[in-house]
Amino acid sequence: MRAPMDDVTSKTVRRAGMVITGKLSTSELAILPFVETDLAPPTRNPWDPTRTAGGSSGGSAAAVAGGLLPIAPGSDGGGSIRIPAAFCGLVGHKATRGLVPNPHETFETIGISVVGPLARSVPDAAALLDTLCGFPEGAGLLAACRQAPPRLRVAVTVESLHHRRAPRRCRPRWGKWRARSPRWATTWARASRWWAAGGVPAHLSVLGGQHAGAGPALFAAHHALAARRAGQKVDKATALRARDVITARVDALFADMDVWLVPTVAVPPPAVGELSGCDAGERFERAAVLGAWTAALNAAGNPAISLPVLVNGRPLGVQLVGRRGDDGRLLALGRTVLEVLGTPLVTLPGA
Question: Is the entire prediction scored with pTM above 0.85?
Fold first, then answer.
């Protein structure tokens, strides 16, 4: 079925000469970190088909990682670009709030969702960002990505062994380097879960209010219905206050650093069916764990890029977080990190 109109993202890439081959799978209303809906089979991870590709932009990640496409746009309201990028061995960038024109802003009015790239390399991600932003050639993020990053103050939180590999090998090029206590991770994880419990369902509540006549018929699956019911308990003012509190917390963390290296996701991808089979409460709690390192950055509006690292032959992501507006410098640092690690392009075994 052909859509009768384009949104701003589709229109932008079409005008740039990119070929749109079809719509890729996503979780309903883009609210869950896995893609298992009533409309189609589950979206599986090309590295291990028994595992999820992540979500909500799981279809984009699976298509790029599986070699169907060289690059694809996704959207990120709590990690929906970065989580599937980490699970599928890709680069995924969440831009500074307001940098990329957002087709969701008419109904997602608290400013947590952004559009961005899923790619096999950092320059490819930067090139798609330039297209989405309308930056002229030679004067955008791709040009910034190709520059040598300056010496930076980098803080590192080590939550699992695979995240130690990147800082140890890149330390001579980064400048000042120090470890953050794990208690910082706990603070951020708690803030992320609070935001997921309050802020994300809030815009679903606004959506339900604007289309009250349609009611639950808007939602086909029990996942979205449960989120809608939770969202009706949170008003917009409460969601905005939560966003502002988390923004202040993240800004305080950046008072003495330029970049923070943290996990993208602290656990491996769940098995297909593992989360969709849970009741609503357990599903939400387990989904919040997947977004514990990503969701707070949507609230704060900071740029963040997930970079692929292979551990025992399987991909996991490390995440570089920058100050708001530092997307170009973050992309340049991400490119340098992958070059130092010797993994500028992660490919499937045998590909």
Answer: no
